[in-house]
TrEMBL record:
<feature type="disulfide bond">
    <location>
        <begin position="254"/>
        <end position="282"/>
    </location>
</feature>
<dbReference type="InterPro" id="IPR032675">
    <property type="entry name" value="LRR_dom_sf"/>
</dbReference>
<comment type="similarity">
    <text>Belongs to the Toll-like receptor family.</text>
</comment>
<dbReference type="InterPro" id="IPR000483">
    <property type="entry name" value="Cys-rich_flank_reg_C"/>
</dbReference>
<feature type="domain" description="TIR">
    <location>
        <begin position="559"/>
        <end position="694"/>
    </location>
</feature>
<dbReference type="InterPro" id="IPR001611">
    <property type="entry name" value="Leu-rich_rpt"/>
</dbReference>
<keyword id="KW-0677">Repeat</keyword>
<dbReference type="Pfam" id="PF13855">
    <property type="entry name" value="LRR_8"/>
</dbReference>
<keyword id="KW-0433">Leucine-rich repeat</keyword>
<keyword id="KW-0472">Membrane</keyword>
<dbReference type="GO" id="GO:0002224">
    <property type="term" value="P:toll-like receptor signaling pathway"/>
</dbReference>
<keyword id="KW-0325">Glycoprotein</keyword>
<dbReference type="Pfam" id="PF01582">
    <property type="entry name" value="TIR"/>
</dbReference>
<feature type="transmembrane region" description="Helical">
    <location>
        <begin position="507"/>
        <end position="529"/>
    </location>
</feature>
<dbReference type="GO" id="GO:0004888">
    <property type="term" value="F:transmembrane signaling receptor activity"/>
</dbReference>
<dbReference type="InterPro" id="IPR017241">
    <property type="entry name" value="Toll-like_receptor"/>
</dbReference>
<dbReference type="GO" id="GO:0006955">
    <property type="term" value="P:immune response"/>
</dbReference>
Amino acid sequence: MAQNKIGNMTKGCFQDLTSLKTLDFSYNRIQSLGHSLFDDVPELRVAKFNDNHLTDINGLFMNLRYLHTLNVSRNNITWFDYALVPTELKTLDIHDNEIDGLGNYFELELLMNLRNLDASHNIIRELTPSSLPNSIEMVSFRSNRISVIGPFTFMAKTNLSFVDLRGNAIRHLDINAFRLKSIPPNQPLPEFLLSNNTLICDCSMEWLQRINHLDESRQYPMIVDLGEVVCNVTLPRQNALLEMSLTKPSDFLCRYQSHCFALCHCCEFDACDCEMMCPENCTCYSDQTWNTNMVDCSLRGYSHVPHRVPMDVTDLYLDGNDMSHVGSHSFIGRKNLRVLHLNNSNIHIIRNRTFNGLQNLLVLHLENNHIAVIEGHEFTNLTKLQELYLSHNRLKAIKNESFKHLNYLQVIYLDHNHIAEFNVWILGYNKALIKVKLGHNKWICECSFTERFRRWFRKHKPIIVDEGSIRCTYNNSTTMHLIEFSNSTCSNFSVIPFTSAEFVEEYMSVMILVPMLLILILLAALVVWKYRNSMKMWIYNKYGVRLFEKNDYPAESEKLFDAFVSYCKKDEAFVTQMVAPELECGLPPQRLCLRYRDLPTSRYMAETISEAVECSFCSIAVVSEQYLKSEWCIFELKASYHESQCNRRHKVIIILLNKVDLKELEPDVRACFKAALIIHWGDRRFWEKLRYALPEGRNHRHHMNCSENKLSTTLRRSSLSNSIKLV
């Protein structure tokens, strides 16, 4: 009954055809079928209703237990569920409808026997494990709107042999979306078609480009059209469409702002080398394994190399900035850096050791800058460099040894500069060269130079990319193709202008370097002068040498103690537990006379304190709020001050435990403070400052242990006590 104009069919049409096995009502105008229409043909096996106007098949075929083929393609069906067809169905064709999903409300995937399904040219948006029966063998989802394929969608489909997913809206795929149960070695892998999708190949998609080589596990299908799959690769400053079969693992990148590896234990601190932190105002990308780590800081207005560039960076884009010069050790520690872009960055000078530490650098872009001179040391450590771009600079002079050590150099571009004379035959040491550009320079037309240049050119002609633009200049105006330049021609040209230019260039370099050297010396002297005290203190604590100072302290026999320590009773614990042990047991050890520990209590206390101060090289006052409220403490401070006025070698040191407002002190106490050396407790280098202020100690050359020092101090206390008693 195919290819007629049948409109609708109702119950009773087949009441006399109970043995009917096959129905073909394709290419008609059928809009609906009666719900009990097929009750009269229970043995129906094949039903074809394709190319009609059906909108619904609910309640039509589910009771036909012998039905094995159903074709309702090219209709207007908008809804489908596996409950609408019998479980014995083996072939189902529903292509070219308006179905937006394969429903499975009653979870019939285990009961269905469906083997072949054509659901192409619909508007299906998502596939899940329940979207297909477990018995399925071949299925087509071509030209739908599928954007999501859930994990393990095909896992339980053990008979699967073919899946067509071409022409959908798939952008991302999880590797588990195509995961299968392990296929026995004697069975072929299922074949999938995936072309004509808009795949976004970020770091989560790297597995796809090698899926056809994951044959050891035999748990993934074979993508037979992988060569036609196009991948949208997100690279810094560009989006590239690449064939999946031509991509590399380094092409699959994801953006990141910060990343801390599992084995990194310092991420909570600022200076952490194993933490990947994207610099401010930059964009960073990495692949899944972090073997590729791109940092894009181009066109960001930087005047220097950004701070905190990740230590594991592999590709660094700094082009389009305004750097003027790149300082020494700017990239130290970036041992994995392979590609560095510094082009278009207004660079005038490359410092000595600018590229120090980049032992694995392969590509260096320095084109379109203002570099005038290559001194020979700039690329010393770049032993693995393969490509060097110096085009469109202002190069006038290149030292002959500049490129000698670059044994792996394959590409060097020196075109569009102001080079007049450079021994290009030196490039013969670079055996790996395959591309050289030398054109658009101001080569001299001097006979011996052009002859050697032409000999080298004839030998290396295959690697010269811009042969036609290599010209020499004479009389500062006329140019001639250097390769065609003959000895008879060159003998007529003057080379004086070039010699003069070389002389001026050398002279100017000296004139620039000498003032710069003087400025550096002056700056160094100013820095030394400003930080002279800190430097002297550091040298003393490090090496025991007092720089530019003579020892004003008298011989050991003249004084009993190195220092008299004045403090109030409430601060005794601080003095006896902190200050005294550190100084008496340190190196060099100091002999201290402590106010409450060492002086006897008597009615002659004032005389005792004065005697103790006189018997000490210097005085230490531990000043707190309680100290300034004690009359005895003030007396001790004044006694120390008086001794310093009478004996210029006696130094008064004040250890401030609290802040003191000098304006609130009495005039005579304020005078004591102004004459003393004040050290604040809690200063970053407190102990170094205190030791530097004290005398060198009588045991500087022979270090006593703590017990020896205390014994010696005890003997001197006894001497002091006897002296006081005699008074």
